Fold:
Amino acid sequence: MSGIVAILNTDVAPCDAAGLRELTQTLAFRGPDGIGIEACGEAGLGAALLRTTDESVVEAQPLSLDDQVWMVADCRIDDRATLIAELCSAGRPARAAAPDVELILHAYLAWGARCVERLLGDFAFVIWDGPNRTLFAARDHFGVKPLFYAQVGGLLIVSNTLSCIRRHPKVPSEVNEAAIGDFLLFGRNGLPAITAFRHIQRLPAAHRLRCSEGVLRVERYWQVPVYEEPFHLQRGEVEERFRELLRTAVSDRLRGRVAAIELSGGVDSTSLAATVFDLRRRNATDVSLTAWTFDSRPLVPGDRESDLARLTALALGIPHVCRSYEGYLLFRDAAGERVLPRSEPQDLGLIAPGLDWSRSISASSRVLLTGQGGDGVFRGQPLTARELLQRGRWFTTAGDAVSYALRRCELPPLGIRTAVKRLARIPQLSVPPFPLWIEPEFARRDCLEDRWHDWWAPRQDAPSTTVRPLATQSLRGSWGPILEGYDAERTGAPLDVRHPLFDLRIIDFLLQVPAIPWFWNKDLPRRAYPGLVPAQLRNRRKAPLAGNPWRTAFERGDCLPAGWQSHPSVHRYVRCERIPEMPESASKVDDLHLWAITYPVSLSLWLQSLTGEHTDERRTDE
Structure:
C-alpha cells in the first residue's frame, strides 16, 4: 500500500520540489521503506514505498526507463508471465524479475492509454509523459486501490491519499453536501466520483484520467461483462476449473514470504484458506500464513464465527489469532480514549476494534487476504429455476434439485415463495421510513428522500437473459466504499489487503456458470475442497449477524459522546434534538435506525476535526 502523489502545473510553472517533498513526507505512514521524489519541469511525482512482493525488493520510485517518462504506483500485477510475453511481442523486452511498477511503465510505453486494458491486478498509478506533456492515471477494475484528484486553477494534484491532497495550500476545504447526505443516510458515500470535499474528486473504479494542455478527461475503460450463453461443462469440469482459477488467483497474491488471512466462519474465506493449504502441499508456495478472526460475542452473544474459524484453522494447520470486542465502548478505543475521525466521514461508533486489529496484523505481516467479493460472485439466482423450466430443461433442473437435496438434506431454493408473492402482488421489499433526524431543508435541497427511495428500490442492471443477472448486478454495484475501508488511510496500518475473489479470471468464468445448481447456497465453493474443510462449515447455511452490536452497547449503558452537538455546522444537516444521548428504549427502536444513530454523531466529530475543534468532555461536564 505504497503512497503516491503527482503534481502538474498546467500553466507550465516549474514544480515546487520543496512543496512536493513535504506532501510526500505525509505519505510516510503508508510506506516505511523509503521516500523519493522527482521534479520534471512543470510536473513532479513522489512516493513512499511499501515492499510486499519478492520483486519489489529492488523497486525504486519514482521510476523512469528513459528519464523522460516517469511514474509512481501502488500496484500488484497478476498473470505477469502473460503480460511479459505480450510486452516482448510489442518490442518491450521486460525482465522476468522486474517489479510490477516497471511492467506497467513498459505497458504504457508499448500501448499508451490502452495499457490498462491489458493489466490484471490491483493498481493506482500516475504517469508523467514528458515528451507529450501529458499526465495519465488509472485505477483498477473494482477500486481496490483508491485514487483522488483535484484541479484548482492551474494546479492538478493526484494521490491515493485524500489527506495528502488536502494539505496542498491551493486546495479548498469546502465540504460536498452530496457526500454528507449519503453518509447520513447509509453510513458511507455511495457516489463513486465524489469525496466529502467539493474540490477533490474520486477517480471511480475502472476509470482512467488524462490531462494534456490543461484539458482533463476521465473515462471508463472496463465494465463487468454480460454473458447470455452459459458454459456447457460437466460437473467435474466446473469444479476443477474453479479450483484451478482459485489457486491461480491466490498464488498471484502470495508473492512473498509472510501473509495473513481474515478468517470467519463463512465459506468465502474458508475456501481461500483451503486453497493456500492446497498450494503448500503442491509445493506451489512456501508462504507462512496466519489466520486472524474477530470474536464478536461481547457485543453479539450468539455469534459463532470465531469458533467455526478456529475449527478451520485447526483442520488446515494454520496458526490462529482471535481478537475480541471485549473492553471497547462506543466511540472509544481499548484505552478509553476518543476515536479520532478519518479523512472522510465514517461511522466511528464501533470502529476502534477494527483499527487495532489491522495494526496488530501489520506488526507481523504486510499482506492480508480477505473473502470480500464472495457475496457478489457467488450470488444465487433462485428464479433461474423458473427460467430453465420455461426453456424446457425440466429433467436437468429436476436432477440438479434432487442431487442438491440428497447431498444437503434440504430442499433447494427454487424461488417458489418469491413467485407466490409476485402472483399475490405482495411487496418483496418495503422502503424503510426516511430518517426523521435529518434537517428538512438540507433533505429538500439535496433531494435526499429521492436518493433514499432509489437506494432501497429493486434494481435490475443486467438483462433478464443474462446467465447470472443478480451476480452481474451485484458486481456492477459500488464496492469502492467497502474495499476502501481496508485502506491504510482508514486504518493507519501499512497493510496491503488483497481480495482473491475479485480476480477478473474467476469473475469471468463464474459469470458464465449457470446459477443452478452451482450457486444454490454457494454450493460450488462448498464443494471445492470437501476433504479439507470441516463438515460443520461445509454444510452450514449462510446466516445474518446473530445480533445487533449497537443494541447491546446501548443496553449495557454506552452513551453518545458528551457535547457532540456543539459544532455549529452539524445543525445544517441534523436535527440534534431528535437523537437521544442514550436510547433508553433500545429494545423498542427499529434495528435499522438504531444501527444508524451513530452516523450524525460521527459527522459532527468529523466536522470538528476539520477546524481542530475537538470537544473536551471534562470541560463540557463542568
Summary: The first strand starts at residue 3 and ends at 9. The longest helix spans residues 235-252. The chain has 26 helices and 17 strands.
